[in-house]
Amino acid sequence: MSTSRASRHLVFHELLDALRGGHLCALCHLENRSVERYFSSVFHESVNDPGLREELLKSRGYCPRHARMMLRNGEALGIAILYEDQVRLLLSDHEGGAAAERRAGGAICPACCKQTDARSRYCSTLLEWLNDADVQEALERSGGFCVPHTRYLQERAPARERDRLTDLLRRRLESLKAELGEFRRKHDYRFRHEGFGSEADSWRRAVRFLTGEDDVF
Ligand SMILES: [Zn+2]
Ligand SMILES: [Zn+2]
Fold first, then answer.
1. How many whole angstroms from 215 Cα to the centroid of ligand 1?
2. How far is the CA of 27 from the centre of ligand 1 (A)?
3. Per the confidence metrics, is the pTM higher than 0.85?
4. Ligand closest in space to the Cα of 153
5. What is the CA 73 to chain-centroid distance, rounded?
6. Domain boundaries along the sequence of the chain
């Protein structure tokens, strides 16, 4: 181990727990959790906060991806309050014509900002600790990282770490290929009696592995 255990910090432990948590992609899980926590604090503490309301007026609400997450994680009255602002804004555009449309908008979705911060925090910590023995062990037992997260990490990793990530991705893809082949084989009437095993949901995992978990990318 190149760096002392004492210098590990909270983000490192979150990462290690996520790798050990049996997720399809630990980074997708951590990003989703960061955004869910953001929405939880919005709906428990900030709906009436003028700062947040102003921020959402500037960004024109949440982007479509995070608006869908908000509907899953938010609370009816809070959403009604925030989106009444948005409806008023669109009506005022309508009344003010093109000049008003040009005036508003342009800021980035606040949930996108939270998610970008989380991605950068977890990925930079992961790259910093990729050679740590505990991370290595957890990584070998985990599902690895989805293709979009692997690409993101590879673009930022030094050569040796990049090769390790490439090898991990190749092995995960090989095992997925074997499961998909097995799933297809068992659809043949000659083998149907064998019944399905862990490959039963491989088609679903393949899509999620190639594109990331719901609403992460
Ligand atoms: Zn991912
Ligand atoms: Zn967003």
1. 11
2. 5
3. yes
4. 1
5. 15
6. 8-211
